[in-house]
Design the sequence.
């Protein structure tokens, strides 16, 4: 768009630019009739065909009139609209106090009560707009303006967005929900129309960012962010804010639920929850929603992820949301010629990020995370050329997400580490064919499916080390199953259409090809990275933890809980001298032995025990309160 500075748009003399985005430029202007400063938002139209522009201008006028009727103390009012040389524009009051994005950049994280107080008036503004049939669709910090007196006001309702929808439809033939990816609800990735619950999700992202100083889902590309929004579990806020109250976390968990029906069902309920954090009173609409909100809160577990009984339908929904978004984004990228989906390392967004040199910075996919692979496997899994690091496959029998590990060499064992035991050397190069491995340890809920089918026997004890009624208790559905022996694990994996991983497969999935001491690299383990008992310290959890809790401790391939939580049974017999005679290609361990191999350490073991090279052992019929397993599957 050419520079409009110094030009007159009707009675508005353009003074200077205030900011710009992909679809509009905002200018400071002088209203020559009322003799006051205003903000003029001019919509970009350079991507339109004449037909699309004509449709867009009609929609723009209709939406502008609807917004002009919105009157609320925390909504920046549209005072006028017009058209300049085919470019539509909106006129609003000029607010010189900046915006929330700038404030957060200057101040960093906010106290949870201050953050809640800040967003309550914005929530009320959205509550009012929704009552008038208006959905914002682009709630984010830069659209929350600050007056000179310090009041927060919401601006930039969806007029620019309806224009962008026309551009998208003209290019792809499909209307696509739009917004800023980091604040978009998962359903906005599909071609479905989003409702008021998308605004609830976006305001929840803003609340998360204010508390933690970061947005929960980020990637190198818009597509990468969209995939993360639809598929990955919410990084627990308490990882970044020590001492954050349970009540504040629970508000975030509910507002940021993946599926709209699992969130607050109206903005009034969300506002009531925010007011509850500050001890304030609810708004009138919030009072009307309060009864339902309390009921919904009672149904919300303390766990971050939804229970397994909801997993199948959530996976199905998430897959369609992501695939719908992919179809539209691919078409849009091709039409615009901008290479949006250059399916190489960079274009894969978070999937490519799993192959970065610093895997701890990634957020891996979770077994309950509602995503299907970009390259959907056939019934025989296709060929290895169909997949890449980050490809996933949902196992039909139990809903477990399996992660792809490509073929290639890696260094197994160690000679030099200070903690190394004699059975970990000599270090030797091993080639493995490509395979799939479970994202996490098999959970209580998954194992119960096999027991219910009559194939597996129940764990030898239903308790864990410190908890009664651990197995069969809905509270611990997403925790690793324990008190199962090697034979139980083998039976389960066969029932699920898989097998136990070999020791070599386990180690490669844990350490990758870089030879890291731990799945996340060589940095010392902490309670943010794994569930263990740090040397000279108390246990991180004092028992098992949910299988998805330590996401930043994932391995290069996005595999979770490869260090700590529970020991993991593998297929191999144990032999302390096996590495000296091990085959260099696809080793499967000794032909017989007295013990089976254990890997990964557990919540009650120390730093040296959770090393990626450490080897444990157990009798095949023995069980324990810190012993679990995961499965693997070969490609043809």
Sequence:
């Amino acid at each position: 768009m050419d520079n409009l500075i110094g030009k007159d748009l009707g009675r508005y003399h353009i003074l200077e630019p205030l900011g710009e985005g992909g679809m509009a430029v905002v200018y400071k202007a002088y209203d020559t009739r009322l003799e006051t400063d205003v903000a003029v938002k001019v919509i970009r139209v350079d991507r339109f065909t004449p037909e699309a522009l004509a449709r867009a201008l009609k929609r723009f006028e209709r939406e502008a009139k609807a917004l002009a009727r919105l009157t609320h103390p925390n909504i920046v009012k549209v005072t006028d609209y017009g058209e300049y040389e085919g470019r539509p524009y909106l006129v609003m009051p000029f607010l010189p106090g900046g915006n929330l994005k700038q404030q957060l950049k200057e101040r960093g994280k906010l106290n949870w009560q201050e953050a809640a107080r800040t967003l309550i008036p914005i929530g009320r503004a959205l509550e009012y707009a929704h009552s008038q049939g208006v959905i914002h669709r682009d709630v984010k910090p830069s659209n929350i303006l600050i007056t000179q007196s310090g009041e927060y006001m919401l601006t930039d309702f969806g007029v620019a967005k309806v224009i962008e929808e026309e551009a998208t439809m003209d290019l792809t033939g499909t209307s696509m929900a739009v917004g800023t990816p980091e604040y978009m609800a998962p359903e906005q990735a599909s071609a479905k129309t989003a409702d008021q619950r998308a605004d609830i999700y976006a305001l929840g992202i803003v609340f998360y960012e204010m508390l933690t100083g970061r947005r929960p889902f980020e990637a190198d590309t818009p597509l990468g962010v969209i995939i993360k929004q639809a598929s990955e579990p919410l990084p627990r806020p308490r990882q970044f804010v020590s001492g954050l109250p349970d009540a504040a976390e629970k508000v975030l968990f509910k507002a940021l639920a993946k599926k709209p029906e699992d969130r607050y069902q109206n903005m009034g309920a969300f506002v009531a929850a925010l007011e509850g954090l500050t001890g304030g009173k609810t708004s009138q609409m919030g009072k009307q929603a309060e009864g339902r909100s309390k009921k919904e809160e009672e149904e919300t577990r303390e766990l971050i992820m939804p229970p397994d009984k909801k997993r199948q339908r959530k996976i199905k929904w998430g897959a369609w949301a992501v695939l719908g978004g992919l179809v539209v984004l691919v078409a849009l990228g091709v039409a615009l010629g901008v290479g949006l989906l250059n399916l190489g390392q960079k274009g894969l967004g978070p999937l490519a990020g799993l192959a970065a040199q610093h895997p701890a910075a990634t957020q891996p996919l979770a077994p309950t995370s509602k995503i299907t692979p970009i390259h959907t496997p056939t019934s025989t899994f296709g060929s290895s050329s169909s997949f890449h690091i980050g490809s996933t496959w949902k196992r039909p029998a139990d809903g477990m997400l399996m992660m792809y590990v490509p073929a290639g060499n890696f260094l197994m064992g160690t000679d030099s580490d200070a903690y190394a035991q004699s059975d970990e050397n000599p270090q030797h190069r091993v080639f493995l064919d490509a395979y799939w491995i479970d994202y996490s340890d098999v959970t209580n809920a998954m194992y119960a499916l096999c027991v219910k089918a009559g194939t597996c026997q129940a764990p030898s004890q239903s308790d864990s080390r410190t908890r009664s009624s651990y197995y069969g208790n809905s509270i611990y559905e997403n925790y690793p199953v324990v008190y199962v022996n090697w034979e139980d694990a083998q039976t389960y994996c066969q029932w699920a259409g898989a097998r136990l991983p070999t020791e070599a497969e386990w180690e490669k999935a844990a350490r990758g090809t870089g030879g890291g001491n731990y799945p996340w690299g060589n940095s010392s383990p902490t309670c943010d990275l794994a569930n263990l008992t740090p040397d000279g310290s108390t246990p991180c959890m004092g028992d098992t933890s949910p299988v998805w809790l330590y996401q930043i401790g994932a391995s290069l391939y996005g595999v979770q809980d490869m260090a700590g939580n529970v020991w993991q049974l593998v297929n191999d017999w144990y032999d302390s001298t096996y590495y000296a005679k091990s085959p260099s290609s696809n080793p499967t361990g000794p032909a017989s032995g007295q013990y089976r191999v254990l890997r990964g350490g557990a919540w009650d073991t120390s730093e040296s025990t959770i090393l990626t090279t450490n080897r444990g052992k157990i009798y095949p019929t023995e069980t324990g309160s810190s012993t679990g397993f995961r499965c693997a599957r070969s490609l043809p």
Q: What stands out?
A: The domain at 100-324 is CATH 1.10.510.10 (Transferase(Phosphotransferase); domain 1). Residues 166-177, 281-384 have pLDDT under 50 and may be disordered. The two ends are 54 Å apart (CA to CA).
